[in-house]
Fold:
Amino acid sequence: MCGRFALVTEKRVLELLFEIEFYEEIESRYNIAPSEMILALRRNPRSGQKELVRMKWGLLPAWAAGKAGAEGFINARAETVAVKPSFRGAFLHRRVLIPASGFYEWRKEEKSRQPYFIHLKGGQPFAFGGLYENGLMKEQLPESCAIITTAANSLVAPIHQRMPLIIPRELYQPWLDPGTPPEQLQMMLKPYPAEEMEAYPVSRLVNNPAFDHPDCLKKV
Structure:
């Protein structure tokens, strides 16, 4: 799964990565947790133009919106995202790119779990592949999103059996295009190459979702 990630970059870097203009400031986040508002790039459903917006991390399907106690899905499995009722509509029509600097996974040890920070070599930002739902204006529900996960690559596998889907930059356009054929989308649902990534252990302070500090990224 992917339950925590970081985004530490400058606004201009994201504008160049996504080839857009963004008119808000971007704050550094070192320990982003589920249910928080996060940045997501999509194509506007009316204009078709790319836009960077804020969505709640925890996709709430249309059939669950407004129901008491309904909780959103933070992840969607690549193996079933095209057929599971909670995700198949969004997978076909409402895909997003979620910017990140890296993500956390926990490795089980004898008496505890050791967190690791996993990122691209060079430290540049990248984008998770995700889905979103529109929300309901009458209920004042925000748009919500989920991060797709795949089987782990050889770097992540010793730490955790799953990892978030990372979309290569050259595939941003077809990923966001609502007209991309399903068979082409399926070819994108694979682990990112291990040789282009790095991982290192970090402090257990990251276990606390309220701890959002540069120390989260320090190697231990």
Observations:
- The chain is about 10% helix and 30% strand.
